[in-house]
Amino acid sequence: MLNPWSDKDRILKIEQQIPRAIKDIRCGSVEIIIHRLSLISIAVGSLILGFALPTLAQGTPSTKELLERVETLTRKVQILEQRLELERQNATARPREVPGLGAGEERVEALDQKVRLLERRWEVEQETAAAKAKEAPVFAAGKDGFFLKSADGNFQLRVRGYLQADGRFFADDQDHVGTDTFLMRRVRPIFEGTVYKYFDFRIMPDFGGGTTVLQDAYLDAHLWPEAKLRVGKYKPPVGLERLQSGSELLFVERGLPTNLVPNRDVGAQLYGDLWDGTVSYALGAFNGVPDLGNGDLDNNDGKDFAGRFFLLPFKNTTIEPLQGLGIGFAGTYGDHAGNVSNPNLPAYRTQGQNTFFRFRSDGAVAGTTVADGNEARYSPQGYYYWGPFGLLWEYVWTSQKVKRNITRATLDNDAWQVALSYVLTGENASYRSVTPAQPFDLQKGQWGAFEIAARYGELHVDKDAFPLFANPANAARVAESWGVGLNWYLNRNFKFQLNYEQTDFTGGGPQGERPKERAVLSRFQISY
Fold first, then answer.
1. Taking residues 367-382, what's their average pLDDT?
2. Cα–Cα distance between 412 and 336 in angstroms, integer?
3. pLDDT band at 108 (very low <50, low <70, confident <90, very high)
4. For the chain, which domains are there?
5. Torsion angle, alpha carbons of 52, 56, 57, 59, to 10
6. Strand partners, 336
7. 4-27 and 30-58 helices cross at what angle (nearest 10)?
8. pTM for this structure?
9. Which position has the higher pLDDT, 1 or 89?
10. Are the C-beta atoms of 316 and 278 separated by less than 8 Å?
């Protein structure tokens, strides 16, 4: 007879084997599953054969209990066999899901290779993008205008300009010397550019006053800072105030000496800066225009020669109070000829832009004064700027041969002026323009820069011009002018100016003196 207690131990061992078999099935270890199920099956079978009948005969409760447990184990074995069959089918239908160590290393190596390929592709894309960026043109806009340039800077196009909306009013004008008016004084778009690094151009028309005039159209070849070539139409290098841009003037209108220098002419000049800008020079040949003239063509074979030297002796020194001192000398010489239809002689204007002197011209040979030979000009000039203080002065002398019918003469005219300025808000004064330290901004309580200015000037016409070559009844012999002004620089691009100019005359009136001119001039200007 079998021992019941030993049978119990065997059943317990079988029960302990079943969870392990289930775990093996979940892990997919087919060989281990088969081995373990075989052991369980043998154990269960031997248990049944060894004590099934004797225990049933005894009918003890313990035997009945053991039979129930054997039946339960049998069902579990059947379930395990079914799971094993499913696992075998899955193993046959697909590769093993758990790769071995060698397969894992191969997969890691493949992923690493893909990462390296992606990194190299990214590097190539970055290099390509950087190369394209270097070759791509650059477009920008700012306070100095708009510009488009190539990546290497050898080709550029800059668009700038300025617009001046003026008011011109005459006080106590009982003789109607001038007309009160609003006007567009200057409307000047500016196109500048560079081609092939060394060659620049500039085109500036003017639509002010309802007319169209080509003011500038020239090209520059700047091979060296010490020697540059300019060819086209531009300002001859003579008048100090004339050489200032119309957008950077201290007063609304230029002073009396500007009447005696050329405005624009066509020609070629060599110019440059020496010793880091300590000395600047310009030497050129031009068609030749009368005083204040703006010409595009010549009416004779003679040409004008112009030159200017300007020295900033302390510019590159440590003597700060003298760094803004500049002195220079300019002059022209040429041959001018005129005729009845084109006398080729000037007319002089006040700051209110009224003509106060002109030569006789009635359309007949006997009654018209014309240019008849050499004209010479010379002009010592200079300025001084230190901190908010500014001083500008110039003198111009001109000599022109003229004739009326068969009578000839050489007439000498001259003019001079001194202008003072002071920036109330403390910014530096300069020959160019004031740049506010705190541009206008209401939210920040900033108002820009304020500047006050005053000047005095005179122009004298040769007394030999009267009465044969000029009519004393409508041409003044002397003009004396003084003016004061207030400039408000809201920012670098916007400016408001208000001037009072008074001019007294000697001669020029039907009954003696031409009436005084009292002009109030205003200007709103935007430049970019």
1. 97
2. 15
3. confident
4. 4-95 (no CATH), 138-527 (2.40.160.10)
5. 150
6. 373
7. 160
8. 0.76
9. 89
10. yes
